[in-house]
């Protein structure tokens, strides 16, 4: 049994022996507690902290340490890891290979526990110039005996980076025709395809398989992952694998029949890159998320193709606003042309249809404007590192500069009510002048939700239009410009200091803008990252491809831990329920299934079939987003519609 959002009951509490240390905290400070008598910790530990310490997870209500009686306790605080150091290398394939080799200095362990994000820190940043590797980075760079020998090509180096980083491999760029993975001590040698796309697919496939085996092998206090029987099926022994060196463990992995690993977890992030110096400069940020990396490839898309794609997506599931056509299918109400926003001078972005691989979220670090992927920039990643630590209270500003969109001001209540105990300060303003809006953007805010109109001259104000390029420094960390054709203004906000934001790519309907804005707000305040929140929210409208994210789409507004969305699908014998961890921006996290109570690896979609009554109780006991038969609902609202079935005795 588990509580809302996978919270464990007291019976699963962690026991600590005398002289053990509890380390807790997800913010700028870690709290260190030392005591000499036995104690119980709730929620339980999720990762060993190294050095004999035990690291505890911080739950929604904090961490509780309970003693049998009165006991002396020492409490201290320490800052979390500082900004990553910088490795300077020549702007050549050899230089980039050196930077990738030293990226592995960020691994906190070389054992299978590196599969958990708590054991991977931010890799050193990359600058270009005469070689300069800080002594601390050189000392921390592991020597695993694993080598990746690559053709001397910038693109090949970038595509190899995730696998090299995770394995702790030494990377060499040299005169050769095809990439090779080698372990000289064990005789392992694997040749990869030479073509970029095929090489990226092979690297990603190998990383995902090795990573899954590490997850199933790791030994972390308080975690009992379901699915470990996979190791038996492959003839692998977890205890033996943990005892091996990185090179020996990789050799054992590749000696197993990995083709039987057909149930790979969904990977949180794939990024599509141009493979040049811009990509090389951004590699540390992509590796921080352990993103898969693929070469960017896309085709132009016209209006007819967009409409056909939108219709296909939109009519997949029923709508609460639709009527049945007599044969059980739902007929959705057609968009009302009279609700179209003004179209004069709206800037429409030319869109691309990217060739996407298997991942939950997609990023684009190349030229062009893709649909179904966020468009990032080096500035977005720099802004994220440079952004000050958030205060305990989220600061959100809602601006309504279009009277016809006043219904969307209700998102302020969503931000206030949906934060699940998180302190939130929401201010609502309207009809701002250009100077007032400029001042608001230049003032520190965690999030600015702008509702209004946008043209080539900028964002609509009561005295004209504000081009955000005229704002020297933007201090709004994130934003939503829910206005027609706001893509260019959003990109300028990121260039001037923001980390990420949602925008529109063309003219949008008023009613659909309100629908997306409301759904997006619910998901953001629940803890979803920007791209994942928007990808779910835009499923609510016909032309969802009119919305996109600029900047680092993995950034999240609310630091909700273990925030989940439930995917519910009606089936013949009940309802299939699958859980997605919204805060799982990094691969390797686990969660307690709200249905079975098992510890499950994020991304391993294993739907559980339940009856109507069980589903109703599950939804009524928590406030989480639910994707019901393809459409976004609130759990409590959906629970209220699941009346008892008189024929089943439910």
From TrEMBL:
The source's superkingdom equals Archaea
Region span, Disordered: 318-342
The entry's protein name is: CHAT domain-containing protein
